Amino acid sequence: MKITIVGRKCTPRESFKEHSEKKLSKLEKFFGDSENVEAKVTATVEKSSQAVEVTVNNDGMVFRAQERAENMNEALDKCVDTLIRQIRKNKTRVEKKLKNSKFDAIESDEEIYEEKDYEVVREKTILLKPQSVEEAILQMNLVGHQFYLFLNEKSGGINAVYRRSDGGYGLITPEVE
Predict the structure, then answer these.
(1) Which pTM was predicted?
(2) Distances in Å between the alpha carbon of 102 and those of 21, 34, 38, 129, 161?
(3) For 66, 93, 127, 175, which has the most beta carbons within 10 A of its beta carbon?
(4) Topology of domain 130-172, per CATH?
(5) b/e burial code for range 42-75 (CB count within 10 A of at least 16 → b)
(6) What residue ranges do the domains of the chain occupy?
(7) How crowded is residue 170: how many other Cβ atoms within 10 Å of its Cβ?
């Protein structure tokens, strides 16, 4: 597994880097050929806490976790636990994507949720009108949704705004490969 450690507003210590490598090695059992697996750890120092974001990319499958704690090691531990839960929860879908899956060797006391299919319970048609990002955020807040799809008046493309867990807003701009 290739691990990249980045610091925002800080420089991660060598002990944190070693701890990251040790903790992320737990994830290698999920990915058969760990040479193609890339993990990016971003550590951020904030006023009252420290945040760690871990993004694992394996042949197009992306797993991401972000946690806050009093110190970086605690936040990293929480991130790794979150990633393991994500992988286990989506076990059947992930198995189809991963070539050399090793889920059979995993024993856990935790309940594993397996969903066979996604069930669409409602379909909705929306009218796209050109809007600014600020108008789209306002409209999203007015309808009380977590995200809002709109036609960006600047770019002319379809974008989405969403409410982030940290209280901010995000903008998704699709890009074709």
Answers:
(1) 0.57
(2) 20, 12, 18, 47, 37
(3) 66
(4) SHC Adaptor Protein (3.30.505)
(5) bbbeeeeebbbbbbbebeeeebebbbbbeebbeb
(6) 2-105, 130-172
(7) 11
**Residue written as tokens 């059979």?**
104
Structure confidence at residue 126 as a pLDDT band (50, 70, 90): confident
CATH 3.30.160.100 applies to domain 2-105: yes
Strand partners, 58: 37, 61
* Residue pointed to by tokens 């379909």: 123
Whole-angstrom distance, CA of residue 151 vs CA of residue 39: 34
Beta bridge partners of 66: 53
According to DSSP H, which parts of the chain are helical?
14-24, 72-89, 91-97, 133-143
The amino acid that residue 24 corresponds to is L
Cα-based torsion angle of the residue sequence 40, 6, 83, 177 in order, rounded to the nearest 10 degrees: -40
Q: How far apart are the C-alpha atoms of 131 and 54, rounded to whole Å?
A: 33
Give the tens place of pLDDT for each residue, 12-41: 889 989 998 999 888 888 776 667 788 899
Enumerate the β-bridge partners of residue 37.
Answer: 58
